[in-house]
Write a structure and sequence with these properties.
five-stranded parallel sheet, 13 helices, globular
Length: about 300
């Protein structure tokens, strides 16, 4: 069974791939192949997986071209998703056009959710802004926060979180002192932190990716700026985040998530598997459990259908 993927192995999104979905796909393929593959009734045997990856270099146009190459030229049996909300939004209609199943991974767009009735081959996996932002607003109220600053990167992830988040936060009675954007790949975000502090914001909310979360945290520490609440969407769930700054320094920081090995027997099994494969705890306590369980679901769907015919 040949499974193809166009994914960011280099460029600004490579760090996100390496610490979220990337290891999960590798581990799943190895686990399936160690058991002889996936049983397909029409062949009356288990078929091992051949995993084909192309580097999209964190470029949207490259990703779409490589996805079509996998489907039209390589004629792979199935495809796995790219990384990020914007890339998933671009990939879903392409896969659907060619009647290829696309089980989403990292990313979740409100715009994508709205067109899902026209995308029968696409399946969403991760929770995202629409489910998270009302809860964040509730938590900030519980903490007694009155004023906040919102920043976001200019990728679809940041833009959509801002568009959903700002109204939800306002609805909760929070005074939004500033809303500012910044380009992907920014190397200095300290002006945003300083401006938020000068405007009297009690909470700092950032809709951003892991490298930006690391930069914001590092610069807040260097500047001695300590908001009453600090939230970054992608990154605080990672042990590498905790270890980079020390658990005491980042205690109380909020972000996307969350689960741990106590969440379910399956979660405990996943943690054990991950440690066996990579000799470390999971890198991502937001999405990794979702990605792996979606692959288990995918394998069972193939076995249940007894065929590689995607329409079935």
């Amino acid at each position: 069974i040949v499974i193809g993927q166009a994914i960011s192995l280099s460029g600004p999104m490579a760090m996100g791939v390496a610490t979220t979905s990337g290891p999960v796909y590798e581990m799943w393929v190895q686990e399936v192949n160690a058991q002889g593959g996936i049983y397909v009734k029409e062949y009356d045997k288990k078929l091992p997986i051949e995993y084909v990856k192309y580097d999209d270099k964190s470029d949207l146009g490259t990703m779409t071209r490589l996805l079509e190459k996998l489907i039209l030229e390589d004629k792979v049996d199935f495809v796995l998703p790219p990384w990020s909300t914007g890339f998933l939004y671009a990939a879903a209609p392409i896969a659907n056009k060619h009647q290829y199943i696309l089980i989403g991974g990292p990313g979740g767009a409100v715009k994508l959710e709205e067109i899902m009735p026209q995308l029968p081959y696409f399946f969403q996996v991760l929770n995202f802004s629409r489910s998270q932002m009302p809860v964040l607003a509730q938590i900030l109220n519980e903490l007694g926060i009155k004023s906040i600053a919102v920043v976001h990167h200019e990728d679809l992830h940041g833009v959509e979180y801002k568009e959903v988040g700002v109204p939800e936060l306002q609805k909760a009675g929070l005074d939004i002192k500033m809303v500012k954007s910044f380009p992907l790949g920014s190397k200095d975000l300290s002006p945003l932190l300083k401006e938020a502090k000068s405007m009297g914001a009690e909470a700092f909310i950032a809709f951003c990716y892991p490298d930006e979360t690391m930069l914001l945290t590092q610069q807040a520490i260097e500047l001695g700026i300590n908001f009453k609440a600090f939230f970054c969407t992608v990154g605080p769930y990672a042990p590498t985040y905790r270890d980079a700054f020390g658990a005491e320094a980042v205690e109380g920081v909020m972000g996307g998530g969350a689960w741990n090995e106590k969440s379910s027997p399956g979660a405990a099994q996943f943690v054990e598997l991950y440690k066996k494969h990579f000799n470390r705890e999971p890198d991502d306590y937001w999405g990794q459990l979702y990605y792996y369980s979606s692959l288990q679901h995918f394998q069972q769907a193939i076995e249940e259908a007894g065929t590689l015919d995607q329409s079935k």
